[in-house]
Amino acid sequence: MDTTLHSIWKSPPKPAVYAESRLIDAILNGHFPIGSTLPAERALAVQLGVTRPTLREALQRLARDGWIEIRHGRQTRVRDYWYEGNLGVLGTIVSHSENLPEDFVTNLLMVRQVMAPAYIRLAVERSPEQVSAILSTCEDLPDTSEDYARADWELHHQLTIASGNPIFTLILNGFVDFYQAMARIYFQLPSSRQHSYAFYMELLQATSQHDCEQAEMITRRVMSDSLQLWQAVKQNF
């Protein structure tokens, strides 16, 4: 086998993964809305072009994450995944970004507004030298949206690790591609880059003084400001 070509060419998705993705698309775009029931197994397998065992595997995966409820002897119901789903649903919704609700990014920023002050305070409290080293890498950051998007992701990722609570890291990891894609849009405005650079330097100063309370306050304020900046970004792009 030509290992060079093998490393470039991606294998096609497994039939169950393909069926699962098609069903999620159909749920998110309203073809199978919340509260509706899926077609009978035989008919649905034909529609998807897969075998019934493959369909059952895909349905089990969807049920595990909270997309559907499999009811023996009755039709499968589409659950209210926003309220009955789990983190698996959230990560999957992000990967199907073409079907995201209009307010999804705003809601995500509101969650970060709650999380970031907590993990940054913990990080500064536990490992101020490590946090200072991480922030110091931002001092000579090139003034481009790509560089800021990459640096901002890496900063928050490393800060969750430094916090000592791996749950923060696992949650953030679920958004890695989406986070950076939205960040590239956010940082296209010079004001967004200036705002974040000021944040990095202000946070560096608080960290150098081992002031975890000040670091938390700075982060809370800046995360709140980011919500307003995102609204300005949406109006420009």
Strand percentage lies at: under 5%
Q: In DSSP terms, counting alpha (H) and pi (I) runs of 4 or more, how many helices? A: 13
CATH fold label of the largest domain: Four Helix Bundle (Hemerythrin (Met), subunit A)
Helical fraction equals over 70%
Shape field: elongated
Query: Secondary-structure element order, as H and E?
Result: HHHHEEHHHHHHHHH
Query: What is the domain total for the residues?
Result: 2
Report the structural category.
Answer: mainly alpha
How would you describe the overall organization of this protein?
This protein is mainly alpha-helical. It has two domains: 3-86, Arc Repressor Mutant, subunit A (Orthogonal Bundle); 101-236, GntR ligand-binding domain-like (Four Helix Bundle (Hemerythrin (Met), subunit A)), CATH 1.20.120.530. It is built from 13 helices and two strands; from the N terminus they run ααααββααααααααα. The chain has helices at residues 3-8, 15-28, 41-48, 52-65, 81-84, 87-95, 104-126, 128-136, 145-162, 166-173, 176-186, 190-208, 212-236; strands at residues 68-69, 77-78. Strands 1-2 form a two-stranded antiparallel sheet. A hairpin with a 7-residue loop joins β1 and β2. α3 crosses α4 (52-65) and α7 packs across α9 (145-162). The radius of gyration is 22 Å and the shape is elongated. It starts with a helix and ends with a helix. 26% of the residues are buried. The model has no long low-confidence stretch (mean pLDDT 90).
